[in-house]
Amino acid sequence: MNIRINRNIKLSVISIPIAFLIICIGTSIGSSNINLLDIISIISNKLIHTSLNEGITGQEISIIFDIRLPRVLLAFLVGGALSVSGAVVQSVLKNPLASPYTLGVSSGAGLGAAIMIIFGISIPIIDSTFSLPITGFIFGLLTIIFVLLFSKSVDRLMTNNTIILAGMVFSLFLSAMITTIGSMHGDSIKAITLWQMGSFAMKGWQYILVFIPFIIIGIIGILLNTREMDILTFGEESAKAIGVNTNKIKTRLFIFATILTGSAVSLSGIIGFVDLISPHVVRKVFGAKHNFVIPMSFMFGGCLMVIADLISRTIISPSELPVGAITAIIGAPFFIYIYFKKSR
Predict the structure, then answer these.
(1) What GO cellular-component annotations does this UniProt entry give (predicted)?
(2) CATH number of the domain bearing residue 280
């Protein structure tokens, strides 16, 4: 066991420079490629005021620090947040095919964000920059509440399969609502359709500053419950036998997962499969202990999203593909693989 833990610690430490390298690569590639060493020089100059490498122009500094770096960092944070949410949902429901999307949380948050985008609504007592992620969280939370209430009404025991099926019903219904609202406002339908597929285009530093508090609250809340998540993996009956209130733990974890998913979706659009792929891969490498699964899902999901975003903006440059299309191309075969493996 100690050998496994030591190995996991080493891999966790190695993941930090790998993530940094992927972020730098994502920042360096674009319509005009910029040297990796120049990227590091610009970032260190902005952070700790070191001297710039020779030959770096003001235009390159602006491209990197004002346009590409915030976009890449937001992609990393959104990918990480969605992956952690996926890890939580899969653990709580003990189903590798479960995700915030299948529970309707992503679609609920998306509906809230779409309403705000189309009608230009904001929350009166809250700064406008925080209105979108807060609305995403509220709609996502309302969705999971309705899913749980509906599940309880048809199955008093609230079995995991019932929750997943109820979530899928709500997800389809809310996705249809988003499309309907967009269609009723013809000038918005294209923007809403593209937004539903996800994009990090034109996202500046303010989006990151708004998103960070939600990430901190969501991830700290989940990390404080990793022991309970480990217990739940042995089954609800075993957990109840040692005094764990499983319904209370489930509800608490769903709320923290909704904070992450709701805020992420409201800022980037509905991006699928990252929350499905990342936790599955991480468990294969690190095992089932959630004190490793949660942080490593964040790192892996963040890196995967940066790579997907890089492909989406370079494959048909100067145009862009929605990043959700790239994650779907990667994720659909993976979903089929998990499904058939689970069926055996």
Answers:
(1) plasma membrane
(2) 1.10.3470.10
Query: What is the model's pLDDT at position 124?
Result: 65
The tokens 């034109």 sit on which residue? 202
Residues 6+ apart with CB under 8 A from 188: 117, 118, 182
CA 152 to CA 30: how far, in whole Å? 50
Specify the pTM.
Answer: 0.91
Question: How many residues would you count in the chain?
Answer: 344
Question: Average pLDDT for residues 66-73, to the nearest whole number?
Answer: 95
| Closest to 39 (Cα-Cα) out of 58, 13, 16, 65 | 65
Domain that holds residue 141: 2-343
Q: pLDDT tens digits for 19-52?
A: 999 999 999 998 888 889 999 999 899 888 888 8
SS3 state at 95 = coil
Cα dist. 66→47, 154, 314, 332 in Å? Answer: 14, 51, 19, 34
- Picking from 316, 209, 333, 235, the residue whose alpha carbon sits closest to that of residue 280 is 333
Are 288 and 233 in contact by the 8 Å Cβ rule? The answer is yes
Domain count, the chain: 1
Of 1-10, 29-38, 80-89, the least confident: 1-10
DSSP 281-304: HHHHHH-S-HHHHHHHHHHHHHHH
The contacts of residue 207 (CB under 8 Å, 6+ apart) are 70, 74, 267
Q: DSSP 3-state assignment of 202?
A: coil
Cβ atoms of 286 and 8 within 8 Å: the answer is: yes
The two tokens of residue 325 are 């299309």
pLDDT at 344: 63
CA geometry: angle at 226 spanning 82 and 216, to 5°?
50
Q: Return phi, psi of residue 49, to 5°.
A: 60, 40
pLDDT of residue 126: 62
